[in-house]
Design a protein that fits this description.
Radius of gyration of chain A: 18 Å
Oligomer: heterodimer
Largest sheet of chain A: 2 strands, antiparallel
Helix content of chain B: over 70%
Number of strands of chain B: 2
Largest interface: A-B, 48 and 46 residues
Structural class of chain A: mainly alpha
Strand content of chain A: under 5%
Structural class of chain B: mainly alpha
Distance between the termini of chain A: 28 Å
Low-confidence stretches of chain B: none
Low-confidence stretches of chain A: none
Strand content of chain B: under 5%
Strand order of the largest sheet of chain B: 1-2
Order of helices and strands of chain B: HHHHHEHHHHEHHHHH
Largest sheet of chain B: 2 strands, antiparallel
Mean pLDDT of chain A: 78
Number of strands of chain A: 2
Shape of chain B: globular
Distance between the termini of chain B: 9 Å
Number of helices of chain B: 14
Chain lengths: ~270, ~325
């Protein structure tokens, strides 16, 4: 699960690093990705593994549209207005999903990947394993993209200094939109992977989003590799907390750990702020 | 406006508010007004910390829940009057706020906002799992139909109306006092630039804690009032993240860091929520929330300063 958290959080972190806006609709992006995976299966019998690129592409477009339709207009606004712009989007998307698809729980039945394997007496669900590996691969790809390709470097330059980047001839406007697109596409991949073994319903994003905020803040805002480590830490604490304390209190363990870490390092584990 | 005129307008408005329950005798309009007062008061309390001191908390439901749970538990175990429970709740909220404030005030901006969300989630999860305090099932406030003022339970909404108006006026009075005091200037200095404020010798940490204490105490009063008004509390109703967000949304809509902003925000948002719920709710399709979410986006894009900014701009143009 840690890798999936990390992937969700990476999108958030990327967007924040670019323009210092926390996307509070991130959980709802995840929910939409899961619904799109579900419907691809329900309508056209497309397995989540097949529809994954489609979902990612659709989410990229959504992120792009969100930037142009909403975020561009609040870039210069106070932090509160930015928070509420994305909060409003979150409520809007969640209730739109409820209005269109209802509140029922959906599950993809008989995906290609199912069953479980045993590793030395330890049973691991194959879907979970595939999701982790898939998330890790997506993460590696993302990291390669932003640190090795020209566009990725332009993204990083924009994140570091908006004005200097635009003086160097980088179209920062385009970079922002691209950042939103990639951020949403990360969630698209994560959502498709989660749908293999998780229920789909309009509120599904909320709990994942909360963990994503903690993961991002833990890893340091805007630091993509740091997010990976933080995601794994969050995943481990969740499991250990559930095992050692009580399953109901596992998120408390995660949040308490987060508070302890930011007490010690207010900028997160690998933050640069 | 010249000062005597403002005073007259204020007195007329107050007289109208006092006369409202005498004219509207049906429970429903009174209920809407009571909730406007309650939410305005919560937003005003949040405004002290976020609006004036610039610390955007997204976990204020914690203090609301503290007020609601403290008075309720005291009624149930000791039979203590909720009025005393209200004070105890406020005191506990202050203590809790100092405890929370100590670590989280070291964080800034988004880190602070997310830390307060985390605190809110921790408290809500703990309360859901704390069976002695009702757990996820919640607590019923024991029914007391003696009608005694001490019991804080009334058949007639009129009494609740005046109590809600009273705590709202208290919150506004406190805000005004702070606005004009040295403390208020310190708060605003911290909001504008924390480092500059510190370099001028303002003890930043202590004043943030002070803003948090005032804000928490007022919020807890609202929590006790809610418990005695609804007579049932559970973690889902008094501690959710959505309540924390609703509180700040009201203040943001009205105008952050202004005295009347929270009242204006509540006077618009509460009836709006009611109207969409009546006409569009109940279908299980959440159309009301759909419109609500859309409106929030529109407001934050078009008028990030809130309605008060609009009013001030208008005044500047005419004056």
């Amino acid at each position: 699960m840690g890798f999936v958290y990390a992937l969700i959080a990476a999108g958030l972190s990327l967007i924040f690093g670019l323009m210092e806006i926390v996307n509070f609709a991130h959980g709802e992006f995840l929910m939409l990705a899961m619904f799109s995976t579900y419907w691809a299966w329900a309508l056209w019998r497309l397995d989540p593994a097949v529809s994954l690129p489609l979902t990612a592409a659709a989410m990229f477009l959504l992120g792009f549209a969100t930037y142009h339709g909403l975020i561009r207009w609040v870039l210069g606004a106070p932090m509160l207005a930015q928070i509420f712009a994305t909060f409003g989007l979150a409520i809007f998307l969640r209730s739109a999903a409820q209005a269109i698809w209802g509140v029922d729980f959906h599950l993809v039945k008989d995906p290609v990947v199912q069953g479980r394997i045993s590793l030395g007496g330890l049973f691991i669900g194959l879907p979970q394993l595939v999701a982790s590996v898939g998330a890790l691969l997506a993460f590696v790809f993302l990291n390669w993209f932003i640190s090795r390709t020209e566009t990725g470097l332009a993204l990083q330059a924009t994140a570091q200094d908006r004005q200097a980047a635009s003086l160097m001839g980088i179209d920062t406007e385009r970079m922002f939109a691209l950042g939103w697109g990639i951020g949403a596409a990360c969630v698209g991949v994560a959502g498709a992977l989660l749908t293999i073994f998780f229920y789909v319903f309009p509120d599904v994003g909320a709990s994942f989003a909360l963990l994503a905020y903690v993961t991002v803040a833990l890893g340091g805002f805007g630091n993509v590799p740091g997010t990976l480590v933080a995601g794994v830490v969050v995943g481990l604490i969740e499991v250990l907390g559930g095992l050692l304390i009580a399953p109901a209190l596992k998120y408390v363990a995660v949040f308490v750990l987060y508070l302890l870490v930011v007490l010690w390092r207010p900028q997160g584990l690998f933050g640069r702020f | 406006m010249p000062r005597p005129l403002t005073l007259t307008a204020g007195l007329v408005a107050l007289a109208l508010l006092l006369a409202f329950p005498l004219v509207f005798t049906l429970p429903y309009p009174r209920d809407v007004m009571i909730r406007i007062f309650l939410y305005a008061m919560l937003a005003a309390a949040w405004n002290v910390l976020a609006g004036y001191c610039g610390q955007i908390s997204l976990g204020h439901a914690v203090f609301f829940g503290t007020g609601a749970y403290t008075s309720t538990v005291l009624v149930k175990t000791l039979g203590l009057t909720p009025w005393a429970g209200m004070l105890a709740g406020a005191a506990l909220a202050v203590a809790l706020s100092q405890l929370i404030g100590y670590p989280v005030f070291r964080l800034r901006g988004h880190y602070f906002a997310i830390a307060t969300i985390a605190v809110g989630e921790i408290v809500q999860t703990l309360m859901i799992n704390w069976d002695w305090a009702g757990g996820a099932r919640g607590l019923f406030i024991p029914i007391d139909r003696t009608g005694s003022l001490l019991a804080f339970q009334f058949r007639d909404k009129q009494v609740y109306y005046y109590i809600a108006l009273g705590i709202l006026l208290l919150a506004l009075w406190v805000t005004r006092r702070i606005e004009r005091s040295r403390t208020g200037y310190y708060f605003r200095a911290i909001r504008e630039d924390q480092d500059a404020a510190a370099s001028l010798g303002i003890p930043v940490a202590r004043f943030k804690q002070r803003a948090m204490a005032v804000s928490a105490a007022l919020t807890a009063l609202g929590g006790t009032f809610y418990a005695q008004y609804i007579l049932f509390i559970d973690p889902e109703s008094v501690l959710p993240l959505s309540l924390s967000i609703l509180i700040c949304l009201i203040a943001v809509l009205g105008g952050v860091g202004t005295l009347w902003g929270p009242l204006i925000g509540a006077a618009i948002l509460v009836p709006l929520g009611e109207a969409t719920r009546i006409y569009l709710g109940g279908t299980g399709k959440a159309i009301d929330l759909l419109i609500y979410g859309f409106l929030i986006m529109v407001i934050s894009v078009v008028q990030p300063g809130g309605i008060m900014a609009l009013a001030q701009r208008g005044r500047r143009r005419t004056g």
